[in-house]
Design goal:
mainly beta, Ubiquitin-like (UB roll), 5-stranded mixed β-sheet, about 10% helix
Length: about 70
């Protein structure tokens, strides 16, 4: 079981980060991915495989203000 932002998510294991993010329709250009406490940079998404018991944190940036 993979944990994504504190929630268990069984179907994430076995996918690479890019595929996982695309399937979630995540804003890839405006997101930071932390995998087991390590920030994964965008060029590494495709070759980074999500394994059982991994912990993912997805942080999206939103513009705003004045």
């Amino acid at each position: 079981m993979v944990t994504v932002n504190g929630e268990p998510l069984a179907e994430a294991a076995g996918k690479n980060l890019l595929t996982f993010l695309q399937q979630r329709e995540a804003p890839i250009d405006n997101i930071v991915v932390e995998l087991n406490g390590t920030i994964i940079h965008r060029p590494e998404y495709e070759q980074t495989l999500i394994k059982p018991n991994d912990k993912l944190e997805l942080i999206s940036f939103v513009g705003g203000g004045r």
